[in-house]
Structure formats: structure tokens, C-alpha cells
């Protein structure tokens, strides 16, 4: 044991976690501070194996970066840009469709839309483009583009557009099989001057939690998670995970929780910041599994751990997330996606079967109210009888 805490309390916390119903804040803190890594990872694997078996899923996607413009200036982001004189502020409908069709040709089933937060509120170039297209806001344009891709290609859209009020969540649910918003952190401290979320009005934790809660009220299959290594404490990580769990217990709409490691990027304010270690990531994933219990889908992107990504399976994850055979990871362009055939080999070598899922997990696609009637037919065309992607 790492500390001087009562060994019996640590054992009790591990046993409680292994039951698969979730652990308390005090138990999570106790395990982070005093449990040895081997016991912690073993407990997380035990919960995963009992509930999820030896299957690890992924989604075959095409990545559509609708716009890089963003009103936030996070200290670690290279995705966002200000307007550039030789570049349109958004992808045009023709460009969106071309990327989606390229995904179709290689068997993708998910169209992942990523974009900056509300650029039209600060950039006249964004407002002018939207007006030319017949829209007033970015979220309206996103809804139209996801409708276009759905109608023309049959790919199932999943969008990560930042903060969304209820009216936009409801509209996007009509054309998106699922939606997502990373909480990243519940710590208000990280928004102070000079912090990673300084000059990032859309990263206020309360506002992001409000969007996640609105998605729950509307029965939207939702993806969220935390970003580790940006200056948060272990206690703040746990509190962020517990805030997500509280909303999921209330509405039952969180289909997956991502634990993503910060990666330092040249040209950002945090270019010289220390990245979290692989061990730190594994321990956080294990704690997430024990906090959320047996039923939650826990994910960590394999491309952010280079060739060592099979180690993530040791911490109780059951999903690799979206993998694209045609487009790069525009959020982390330096980190290439693993080849899907190699991913299958390495997953099998670790004792698991790789299964392709859709952008909505099987258990959510069959739940009443989570799939809009307009998406039922496109979903059935891509889904097998067991809820995974049709071969």
C-alpha cells in the first residue's frame, strides 16, 4: 500500500468497487491515495469482464471538421483558428458531402462532426458565411449539414459542437444518432487567468454540465468524459467523474465516458506542460470504471498512447472509440489512428474480440425514446440483429 491508511479500508473500497455498483467519493479518494496499482487495475478488469465480457468495440468513422473557428482560446488546442484570408470559415455543403462520401467508400458508418464553439458571436467572417448559406447560427448550419449527410450517404452523424441549449439539442437529435460534449473538468479553478481554460467562456463547468443535463431530459444518447493532465488534482478528477455519474443516474443517457490524456502541442500556451504518464492514465481509467460500475462503456483513444495502447485494456476499458481509415484525428493531428486490422490483431492478442459498433451503442439503440423516428430506417440499414454494426 502506498500510504499509512488502514489496509482494511482500502480492501473494503476495492471489494465495493468489484461489486460493480459504483463507489463513493471517499472510497475513490482512498483508492487513488493508498491502493497499489496492481490491485486497482485488477478490480477494474474484474468489473469490466463480468459485465462486458471479452468484447471491445470501436466505431468506423469519417471525421468532418465543419469549422476550426472558435471563440474559445484553450491553452492546449491546435484545432481552433482565427479566420484566415485564403480559407473559407466553414466547410461548404459540397466539401462536407465529399468527405462523407469518401468515408462511405471505405465502409465507414459514422460521420463525426467536430467544430469550434459559436464562432459567429465573435467573427464577422463566420456570420457572413452563414448568411450566404441562409443561416444565422453555427448550430443551425450543423443541423443542415448532418441532415445532408444522413440523406445523401446514409452515414449516421454524431456531433461534438460544444455548448447546446435545449432547442438545438432537440433539433440535432432529429439528424444525429448521438451527440457529445466533453466535460473535460469540473474545476472552476482551471478557468482563472493563465489557466488552461482562461479566455474560454464555453469551458465553464456549470455550463457544460447544463448541456449534459439538457441532453438527459431529451433522452439523447450522449458521450462525455474528462481530459487529464491539464493541471487538475486527483480530487478534481474524481469530482468531475462523479458530476457525470450524478447526471447519468438521474437520466440514464450517458452511453460512454472517455478518459483522454492531455498531449502538449507546439505553438500553444501549454507546449511545455508535462503530459500525464501512462501509469497515471491507467489508474484514472480504473477509478472511472469503479466509479461508474459495470454497465458504463469506458473509452480511451488508442492513438494517444502510441503503440502501447493495448495496455489500456488492463484498466477496464471496453471501447476504443471512433477510428477513421480515411481522415486524420483533426484534434490530435500528430497522433495517427491505428490501422483497424492491426487494432484487431492487438486486441485479440490481449484476449479480446474486436467488434464494430455504430455511433450509438446497442443498449441505447433499442431503448424507447433515444432514436428519433427519422433515424430509425438509416439505423436499421447499418445495424445487425445484436445491435452492433452489420457485417
User: Share of helix among residues?
Assistant: 25-40%
Overall mean confidence score, pLDDT: 96
Query: What is the overall shape?
Result: globular
Strand content: 5-15%
Q: Distance between the terminal alpha carbons, to the nearest Å?
A: 47 Å
Let me know the CATH homologous superfamily. Aldolase class I
Number of domains: 1
Q: What is the structural class?
A: alpha/beta
* Counted beta strands: 9
What composes the largest sheet? 9 strands, parallel
Count of runs of 4 or more consecutive helical residues: 13
Which stretches are low in confidence, meaning pLDDT under 50 for 5 or more residues running? 1-5
Do you know the CATH architecture?
Answer: Alpha-Beta Barrel
Series of secondary-structure elements, N-terminal to C-terminal? HHHEHEHHEHEHEHEHEEHEHH
Q: C-alpha Rg, in Å?
A: 20 Å
In the CATH scheme, the class would be Alpha Beta
Report the CATH topology name.
TIM Barrel
How would you describe this structure in keywords?
alpha/beta; nine-stranded parallel β-sheet; disordered N terminus; TIM Barrel; 391 residues
Describe, in plain words, how this protein is organized in 3D:
The protein has 391 residues and is of the alpha/beta class. The chain has a single domain (47-382), classed as Alpha-Beta Barrel (TIM Barrel). It contains 13 helices and nine strands. The chain has helices at 7-18, 25-34, 37-52, 93-105, 124-133, 138-153, 166-173, 205-217, 234-251, 278-292, 340-349, 362-365, 373-382, and strands at residues 55-67, 110-115, 156-160, 178-180, 222-228, 254-261, 298-299, 319-323, 353-357. Strands 1, 2, 3, 4, 5, 6, 7, 8 and 9 form a nine-stranded parallel β-sheet that branches. Helix 9 links the parallel strand 5 and strand 6. The protein is globular. The model is unreliable at 1-5 (pLDDT under 50).
Amino acid at each position: 500500500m502506498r500510504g499509512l491508511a488502514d489496509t482494511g479500508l482500502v480492501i473494503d473500497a476495492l471489494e465495493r468497487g468489484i461489486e460493480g455498483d459504483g463507489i463513493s467519493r471517499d472510497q475513490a479518494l482512498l483508492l487513488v491515495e493508498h491502493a497499489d496499482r496492481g490491485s486497482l487495475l485488477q478490480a477494474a478488469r474484474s468489473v469490466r469482464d463480468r459485465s462486458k465480457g471479452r468484447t471491445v468495440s470501436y466505431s468506423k468513422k469519417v471525421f468532418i471538421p465543419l469549422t476550426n473557428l472558435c471563440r474559445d482560446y484553450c491553452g492546449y488546442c491546435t484545432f481552433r483558428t482565427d479566420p484566415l484570408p485564403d480559407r473559407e470559415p466553414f466547410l461548404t455543403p459540397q466539401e462536407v458531402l465529399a468527405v462523407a462520401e469518401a468515408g462511405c467508400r471505405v465502409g465507414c458508418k459514422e460521420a463525426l462532426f467536430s467544430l469550434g464553439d459559436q464562432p459567429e458571436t465573435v467573427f464577422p467572417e463566420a456570420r457572413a458565411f452563414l448568411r450566404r448559406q441562409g443561416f444565422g447560427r453555427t448550430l443551425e448550419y450543423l443541423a443542415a449539414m448532418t441532415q445532408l449527410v444522413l440523406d445523401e450517404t446514409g452515414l449516421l452523424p454524431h456531433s461534438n459542437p460544444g455548448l447546446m441549449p435545449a432547442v438545438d439539442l432537440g433539433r440535432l437529435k432529429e439528424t444525429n444518432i448521438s451527440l457529445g460534449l466533453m466535460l473535460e473538468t469540473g474545476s472552476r479553478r482551471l478557468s482563472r487567468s493563465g489557466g488552461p481554460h482562461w479566455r474560454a467562456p464555453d469551458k465553464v463547468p456549470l455550463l457544460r454540465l447544463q448541456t449534459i443535463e439538457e441532453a438527459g431530459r431529451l433522452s439523447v444518447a450522449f458521450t462525455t468524459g474528462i481530459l487529464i493532465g491539464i493541471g487538475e488534482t486527483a480530487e478534481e478528477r474524481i469530482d468531475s467523474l462523479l458530476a457525470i455519474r450524478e447526471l447519468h443516474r438521474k437520466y440514464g443517457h450517458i452511453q460512454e465516458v472517455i478518459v483522454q490524456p492531455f498531449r502538449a502541442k507546439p505553438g500553444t500556451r501549454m507546449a511545455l506542460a508535462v503530459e500525464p504518464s501512462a501509469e497515471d492514465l491507467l489508474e484514472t481509467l480504473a477509478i472511472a470504471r469503479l466509479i461508474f460500475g459495470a454497465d458504463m462503456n469506458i473509452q480511451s483513444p488508442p492513438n494517444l498512447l502510441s503503440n502501447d495502447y493495448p495496455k489500456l485494456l488492463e484498466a477496464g476499458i471496453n471501447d476504443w472509440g471512433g477510428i477513421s481509415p480515411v481522415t486524420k484525428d483533426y484534434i490530435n493531428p500528430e497522433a495517427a489512428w491505428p490501422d483497424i486490422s492491426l487494432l484487431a490483431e492487438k486486441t485479440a492478442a490481449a484476449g479480446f474480440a474486436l467488434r464494430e459498433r455504430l455511433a450509438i451503442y446497442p443498449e441505447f439503440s433499442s431503448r424507447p425514446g433515444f432514436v428519433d423516428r427519422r433515424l430509425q430506417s438509416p439505423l436499421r440499414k447499418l445495424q445487425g440483429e445484436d445491435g452492433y454494426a452489420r457485417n
